Amino acid sequence: MQKIEKRVSPKGPFVVIVGPTAVGKTKVSIDVAKEMDSEIVSADSMQIYEHLDIGSAKPDVIEQDGVKHHMLDCIPLDYSYSVAQFQSDARNSINSIINKGRLPIVVGGTGLYVHALTHDIDFTRVVGDEDYRKQLEAISEEKGKEFLHNMLIEKSLDRAKNIHPNNVKRVIRALEILNDDSVKNNDTYDFEKPLHGIDFTIIGLNMDRQQLYDRINLRVDIMIEDGLIDEVESILASGFSKDLVSMQGIGYKEIIEYLEGIVTLGQAIYNIKKASRRLAKKQITWFKRDKRIKWWDLSDQDYCGATNEVIEYINDWRMSI
RNA sequence: GCCUCGGUAGCUCAGUCGGUAGAGCAAGGGACUGAAAAUCCCUGUGUCGGUGGUUCGAUUCCACUCUGAGGCA
Description:
Helix 11 crosses helix 12. The protein has helices spanning 25-36, 61-64, 83-99, 111-117, 130-143, 145-155, 157-160, 168-179, 181-184, 209-225, 228-237, 252-259, 265-288, 303-320, and strands at 14-18, 39-42, 69-70, 104-108, 200-206, 293-297. By secondary structure, it is of the alpha/beta class. The structure holds one RNA strand.
């Protein structure tokens, strides 16, 4: 675990486009960016990795259509990236775009990453403490998950009531934060703390659930046709371990199971589709509760109309700030 | 034409010796502070093929009927 040297604050206004996987964020955002002479900052925890091209649905150079993309295809596969680092790196990207006099458009489906960019959360304060974590893991093993959770209740009932005792990973991290001296006497460690002084607007894209699922299923079939299996084989042949965090992404872990003979190709494809549908559902759940989002419905494939409306909306918003 | 076995949740099927039903998968809802495509929690969604009959009461028993599979002609 490494410490992020300095906290980065965004310098100026930016746009955010969110939505579930396969809804059409990439297409809409590139069209909008071209129209507005913008650059895109990706907020996607998988597309950020190198070599995860087909399976992460990363836009290639042709699809990018001349629009400059940041935070895409830039982290080595064997590096364990994190939201803290993303917050810092993405804000640097945003600021570099603003320095060019352009409007940054953040695009992505990773809710926590977007949350970190659009709230005043300071991840630099509490660094991971491996020894303390091991100690807590040992307590969980020996005395049980409930015992560990009770420790959290004693320190902060507020934090404890939103974390289920079975979610040991979360309980440990919460204890780690509360154990840090800088947090102990500081009640401003607020997940929802607004980002003051910076104007931004969040646009959400969604569509009829069944239509979205049809698109997901079709896209998985296309990924297989485009050579997802070769992509996974070549990653493994390059010496990367299947245990890497990056290789737990949807489309990768399932193909690895197929390559290892655990499941048939048909089952692997079925599993990828299922996991993708569940991802979309979770993303919708995450974004639904964010009342700042202005939603557009992309059902029935009306991309042109929606894109024009979004452009108009952004123009109006810019005039108002 | 005759015989046999089926028809119950989106799918595959249990089950009720008569008191309006439950598993798996699929699905839905939710939590979220340094792995977030991660981690974790909650939920059965139903004209029991149709119409009659027997019964206090039928998804269950009976008759007819529609429908699927197999067998015999």
